[in-house]
Amino acid sequence: MKFLLGGLCLSWVLALGFSYPWMKGHPNITHDELSQHHPHPRIAGFPERCDGLGFDAITLDEQGVTYFFRDEFLWKGFAAPAQRINETWPLLPSHIDAAVRVHHTLSPNENDRMLFFKGDQVYQYFGTTLEGQFLIHEKFPGIPANLDAAVACPIRECPANSLLFFKGETVYLLDLQTKLVKEKTWPQVHHCTSALLWLGNFYCFQGTNFTRFNPNAGFVFSGYPKDARDYFMHCEGRGHGKKNKTSADSNYNRCNNRSFDEFNEDELGRVYAFRENLYFRLDTKRDGWHPWPLRFSWPELHGKIDGVFSWNKKIYFIQGSQLFVYKAEAQYALIEGYPKPVTEELGIPSTGVDATFICQGSSLLYVILGNQVQSVNLEKTPRNLGDGFRIGHSHVDGAMCNTNGVYLFVGAHYYKYNSPSDLAAWTSTPDPHSISLDFMSCVH
Questions:
Q1: Within 13 Å and on the Cβ side, how many CA atoms surround 443?
Q2: How big is the chain by its Cα radius of gyration, in Å?
Q3: Shortest CA distance to 78 belongs to which of 128, 17, 33?
Q4: When comparing pLDDT for 113 and 52, which is higher?
Q5: If 194 and its partner were Cys, which of 58, 117, 272, 308 is the partner (CB 3.0–4.6 Å)?
Q6: Helix, strand or coil for residue 73?
Q7: In DSSP terms, which residues pair with 417 in a beta bridge?
Q8: Is the pTM of this model over 0.70?
Q9: pLDDT digits over 306-331, tens only?
């Protein structure tokens, strides 16, 4: 019998809309924001999500909306009240065992499908349309009936597009391409009543507690378990560090016009904004920006980031005189031997770096020191600073390059240049634009 689970929705991590400054149109407002401004009346006799009784399953749909299931009810998003399951997914039975959205880009007929498990049956939906009902052992040979939980592990988080199934103390890892199943016993991850992948992080829920775990090795990160009602849903009088994270001066408030230390877009298209001991991460426009403690992904980093860039499937951080290099495939992992002196590794000064950027497909790293920009060819050894040029900014807080151009961040504003050569050939600085409005989709 499943443990009952209490709640879900990071109380300080709201699904906030986002539109890039090079994209047209209005910010993408999520269901959660709408539900806060236009709350739906609760129906008498329907359950409350903060009652501590928990959920049978949790998953995201193809639009990135999180659903929570219990008995014949579901909660859509992080703030809306309960409604009946059949209002969204006709013909789906109540009391489901597990639910998961499939990531399988190599198979269009399976990608972005919603799978619901009950007993020995699996129900496959595309959107809200039922495509078929199958026996679990026929659709997924090697996967047992009466599952406890399931979660997808896409290729950027796992070595291959996979599904993880939980039953008792056993985890079944299914490679969607080869169809091979591996059985694992992870002492720290077992008896999950629900499982969730959210913004690159994996969670196992047990009763009202949850843990964050590594989907490849099965270990649980330090500081867990925690009470889900303080993190994963809006409950009156509850919440982790609520006062600090809701104040106008909080670093968690991406819309307060406080400067950011650095920006970076990695090779998987994920965008990061760094501010002191926090980072804001954007996976897709539909997901929105979300703040996390810096140690959440990079435990060895503390405080202000002086420079960050992604190159050759790695992410590089400069903090003071030290260079940290992490593997960027699946989960981040510090490469053995790091940190190392930045002067030794990159041939740049040990102090005074304001920002760094590198453009996709290039090995040329640009280092900004005051109003000077110098370059380092990362493919050459030893690495040394090459010739540079002067820019029209006495200081920048951060910099980023992607296919749309070079962005320099100064205080609450950014300045866009079409390319590094355009930046080098400047005759006058471009007009400033608002970071909070254009990058963070804030409404003032």
A1: 8
A2: 23
A3: 33
A4: 113
A5: 58
A6: strand
A7: 406
A8: no
A9: 999 999 999 999 998 999 999 876 56
